[in-house]
Amino acid sequence: MEERVYDLEERLAVFAARVVVHVDRMPRTLAGRYYGGQLLRSAGSPALHYGEAQAAESDADFIHKCKIAHKELKESRTNLRIQILAKLIPLTDADVAWLIQECEELVRIMGKIIAIKKRGSRG
């Protein structure tokens, strides 16, 4: 049986790409453009920061870059919640449900990576 390799950078890139598709489907209202543009920035950033973290110069540098990615994921999560509450996007849309679930999982994963790396760099 072939061992599956887990690639967080790829998962973050897929999340960002699916956000691009989502934003292109959003209403062209003032609110839609505002929250859509903000989501593009916050959802695309974690893949880029995590990519940088892979070439970090120290544990502290790695943690710092991951913390930025974590903050951006949390911002994306809140943005998606606002979009739902403002009825900019339908909660029944399967793509939206995937984005919300994936964002939540990525927030948890990134938080765990930071916690583990912090413990390891103290020891």
Describe this protein with a few key phrases.
123 residues; de novo design (two linked rop proteins); 79% helix; single chain; mainly alpha
Outline:
This protein is mostly helical and 123 residues long. The chain contains four helices and no strands.
Can you tell me about this structure?
The protein is elongated, with a radius of gyration of 16 Å. 79% of the residues lie in helices and 0% in strands. It starts with 7 loop residues before the first helix and ends with a helix. It has a single domain (8-122), classed as de novo design (two linked rop proteins). The mean pLDDT is 93. The protein contains four helices and no strands. α1 packs antiparallel against α4. The longest helix is centred in the last third of the chain and has 29 residues, at 94-122. The protein has helices at residues 8-24, 30-53, 59-85, 94-122. By secondary structure, the protein is mainly α.
Within CATH, the superfamily carries the name: 23S rRNA-intervening sequence
Share of β-strand residues: under 5%
Classify the helix fraction into a percent range. over 70%
Q: Gap between N and C termini, in Å?
A: 36 Å
Taking pLDDT < 50 over at least 5 consecutive residues as the criterion, the unreliable ranges are none
Instruction: Give the CATH class.
Output: Mainly Alpha
Order of helices and strands, N to C?
Answer: HHHH
The Rg value, from CA coordinates, equals 16 Å
Q: Specify the overall morphology.
A: elongated
Indicate how many domains the architecture comprises.
1
| CATH fold node name | de novo design (two linked rop proteins)
Biggest beta sheet summary: none
Using DSSP, what is the number of strands? 0
Number of helices: 4
- Just name the CATH architecture: Up-down Bundle
